[in-house]
Amino acid sequence: xxxxxxxxxxxxxxxxxxxxxxxxxxxxxxxxxxxxxxxxxxxxxxxxxxxxxxxxxxxxxxxxxxxxxxxxxxxxxxxxxxxxxxxxxxxxxxxxxxxxx
Length: 101
Prior knowledge:
Blueprint: H1 9-22, H2 26-33, H3 37-48, H4 54-83, E1 85-89, E2 96-100
Antiparallel strand pairs: 1-2
């Protein structure tokens, strides 16, 4: 059987915080805390099911809205660029070349 030791909630929270906020790898965080990477991944998975705070939900909604607007703008730009070009050459789908109006 493998070794089993109880890790305090404070240590778990510290490890998860370092991964999420400081951007260190799971392997590095696990090594620093003296635990296996499997344990850290389990902690992260367990934490994923916790209810997010209202602040976090609102932040994600704002970010989602921003990304939707950005996608819309990029899509419109792409459509404008497509309309500004026309095809010439074989119209059976081969050898088509594009040029600007």
